[in-house]
């Protein structure tokens, strides 16, 4: 799971950039009612309500701090990669933690894989500052939660009995729960989409919850509702005087 590479420089850089903050902080820096509504551009890609809800909020609130971002939809077992302006680069299926759940077991990143119980193999939900780095196998990965040993990487195919490639290829998300918690994606998708998007920069990964409403995890809001409230609260234009 976790890499042997040091992450001190990574953490210091993130702290200097002010990227560690509660998700509601970015939205609270400016009154959202004072701005026109902005939405993510999913192109023609099919996406769930929750994926669109969170992506729209990210773009409208500026929570991604002008950085590329990723939406990981655990219920649909799907990953969406966006540029800093909220335009979709591409989407792909993903393999996720074997166990259903949104919270990582404390200290799990420091435990041997053989000591992790099936019920503890979760992909935690939340907002994560992500960056490229190396793992113990000498491969480059996108570190989502370094302390929790959760990364996004090329699908592992070493254990043929797990049939990970076949799981990715099926149309249903029901067989995509197989990992210890990491996010496995097709190798070409990692190399052609994820790695270029995060090359030379940080980014934000939003892992959608599956046991709680999204707004509880991200302190988010519905962009359409905000726009309607904004329109209703604006004063009516003054009528011109008539002779």
Describe the fold and architecture.
This protein is elongated. It has helices spanning 8-17, 23-28, 49-61, 164-169, 187-198, 214-218, 223-233, and strands at 69-73, 78-82, 88-93, 96-97, 126-134, 140-145, 150-154, 177-179, 183-185, 203-207. Strand 5 and strand 6 (140-145) form a beta hairpin. With 243 residues, it is α/β, with parallel strands linked by helices. The protein has a single domain (8-229), classed as L,D-transpeptidase catalytic domain-like (Beta Barrel). Strands 3-2-1-10-5-6-7-9 form an eight-stranded mixed beta sheet, sandwiched between helices. It has a two-stranded parallel sheet with strand order 4-8. The chain is built from seven helices and ten strands.
How do you describe this structure in short?
The chain has helices at residues 8-17, 23-28, 49-61, 164-169, 187-198, 214-218, 223-233, and strands at 69-73, 78-82, 88-93, 96-97, 126-134, 140-145, 150-154, 177-179, 183-185, 203-207. The chain is an alpha/beta fold and 243 residues long.
Shape: elongated
Write the CATH architecture name.
Beta Barrel
- The CATH topology, please? L,D-transpeptidase catalytic domain-like
Mean of all residue-level pLDDT scores: 85
List keywords for this structure.
eight-stranded mixed β-sheet; alpha/beta; 7 helices; elongated; single chain; 10 strands; L,D-transpeptidase catalytic domain-like
């Amino acid at each position: 799971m976790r890499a042997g590479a040091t992450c001190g420089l990574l953490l210091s850089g993130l702290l200097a950039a002010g990227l560690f903050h509660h998700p509601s902080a970015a939205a609270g820096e400016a009154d959202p009612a004072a701005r026109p509504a902005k939405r993510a551009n999913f192109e023609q890609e099919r996406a769930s309500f929750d994926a669109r809800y969170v992506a729209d909020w990210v773009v409208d609130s500026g929570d991604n701090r002008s950085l590329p971002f990723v939406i990981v939809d655990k219920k649909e077992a799907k990953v969406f990669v966006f540029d800093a302006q909220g335009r979709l680069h591409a989407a792909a299926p993903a393999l996720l933690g074997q166990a259903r759940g949104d919270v990582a077991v404390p200290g799990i990143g420091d435990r041997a894989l053989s000591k992790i119980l099936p019920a503890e193999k979760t992909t935690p939900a939340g907002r994560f500052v992500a960056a490229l780095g190396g793992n113990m196998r000498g491969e480059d990965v996108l570190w989502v939660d370094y302390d929790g040993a959760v990364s996004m990487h090329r699908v592992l195919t070493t254990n043929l009995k797990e049939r990970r490639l076949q799981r990715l290829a099926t149309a249903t998300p029901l067989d995509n729960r197989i990992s210890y918690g990491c996010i496995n994606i097709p190798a070409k998708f990692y190399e052609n989409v994820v790695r270029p998007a995060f090359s030379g920069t940080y980014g934000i990964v939003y892992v959608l919850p599956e046991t709680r409403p999204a707004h509880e995890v991200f302190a988010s809001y519905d962009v359409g509702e905000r726009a309607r409230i904004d329109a209703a609260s604006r004063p009516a234009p003054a009528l011109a005087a008539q002779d």
